[in-house]
Design a protein that fits this description.
Layout (H helix, E strand, L loop, with lengths): L3 H6 L2 E7 L14 E2 L1 H17 L6 E7 L3 E7 L5 E6 L5 H6 L12 H16 L7 E10 L2 E9 L5 E8 L6 H8 L9 H5 L1 H7 L3 E11 L3 E10 L4 E10 L12 E12 L7 E10 L2 E10 L7 E12 L3 E13 L5 E13 L3 H6 L4 E15 L10 E18 L11 E18 L2 E15 L14 E3 L13 E3 L1 E14 L2 E16 L2 E5 L2 E11 L2 E11 L11 E9 L1
Parallel strand pairs: 1-4, 5-7, 8-10
Antiparallel strand pairs: 1-2, 3-4, 6-7, 9-10, 11-12, 11-29, 12-13, 13-14, 14-15, 15-16, 16-17, 17-18, 18-19, 19-20, 20-21, 21-24, 22-23, 24-25, 25-26, 25-27, 27-28, 28-29
Length: 571
Amino acid sequence: MLSSSQLLAQEYKVTVKSKANLPKEFKSIHNFTGDSAAIQDQLKIFLQNLYREGYLAASIDSLCYDSSNVVVNLFIGKKYSWAELDFSQLDETLQEELKGKKRKTETGDLIELQNLKKQIVSFYENSGYPFVSVKLEAFEMDDSVFRAVIVAVKGDFYSIDSLIVKGDAKISTNYLKKALQIESGEPFNQKKINAISKRMNDLKFLSEIKPAEIEFREESIDLYLYLQNKKANMFNGIIGFLPDPDNHRDEKTGKLLITGELNLNLVNSFGRGEEIFLNWEKLESSTQKLNVGFMYPYLFKSNLGLDADFGLYKKDSSFLSLNAGFGIRLFLSYDDYIKAYYRYKSSSRIGDEKAMSLSLNYADVKSNIFGASYYLNELDYKLNPRKGVELNLYGGVGFKNIDHDTNGNDSLNTDNSTIELEAGLNLDVYFPIYRNFIFHFGNTTRFLDQFADHNQEVVFYENELYRFGGARSLRGFDESIFYASIYSLQNVEIKYLFEQNSSFYVFWNGAYYYKNVVNDITEDFPWGIGIGIDFDTRAGIFSLSYAIGKQFDNPLEIRTAKIHFGYISRF
């Protein structure tokens, strides 16, 4: 005689018997072998599938075991279908949503019916009725069809009264309402409440101490949030060691030029969710760049936000460029927005008259641009994503004025005005390929064009073009070495994430660019390859990358490789 433990462990072959023929899609059950526990699980799934196909009366009559076999006596019964499922007692908006669910002369599916009930409950839970229930009334079964009326028992209506913050978080209640998309006075919404933890995780500067809690009152609720400040201010820098271009190649002194970059990003310093940033770069021995800006969200308790930025770029003793912009954002969610912007750009030659007379591809230019942009952020973790998409798309049009032309070409009109068009795309896509291996594809595209009357010749000058190259764009090359009116840069990385903020990666990046200035047309596809590492410590995230670049017909040369050190500190 077998003990119970031996019985559970023994393998049996299943034989299913039924007075009616089994549907062909279920005959594979005959080939099933397993112990008694596995057989029970398989039979439950088997019955659920029969219910799904409309055999609503199906049941297991008996199971008969012998030494190596089990015989299942199955009752299948009739196959039922809907005659009518009546939604007329539900909200009209919900009736429209459920039109596709209304089944006539189709298979009756109890599991589908349960899903339908869940959808109805969800609708009312998100419309102010947290205690709703659903039931079937006037249920009729006739031969192999059935009819029913679906009724929602809504219960009491509740609205959201107050948002109450507990903890040391320094943040305005208005900002939280906008970020969580929850407003006082709106109907209770279970979906929004369930999403609070996810939305709080997306915020750069706040974290949950524990999940939100609800206090029910007579006709409203108070929502309690338990929040604490999170390190979000960011300081980072990069130091680069490059061969010094001021040393003649034949001297082979091995002297290096040290370049650098500093970034400071302050978030929520005044408790309004605002951002302030500063960026300074020294690209060459006498070339520097400075950018400052701010963003203020949810102005006057609306979904509108403001941003502004100001930038200077000084190219040794050749020219000085200024770039200033102002934008109005309409937030679609916490991170996503559309924006209307105005941008003023100017670039002027500097230096003595002799130097200015030699700057044939430079001129004093000014532009006023009006445009729009769209930003989408679906990254799971912005600092070091595993999956998701980040997109920024913009375009603008305006007027450009050329104050002085020094190229000596009399056929060009001076003080001429043209229509200027600009467009840009920033796209980053991340997805996991195997365990902690992540694939990253990035694209940065810029387009600049201009139009004038037929009797005018339109030209670009080098000091008004886009600049790219270096650690933040095209690795393997000097910072901002390339000038272009059109370029499209691709970046492909395979990253191995061994910690949340630590990774090792190999990469390839390349760019098509087109440069058309007064006395020069250049078109090329420079590219670079390399490796790098980001390493998270208590002091911050340290980065190191090594890259080699190739352009035109030049070969890859180790001595032209670029090494970049980076550092990110959050406080």
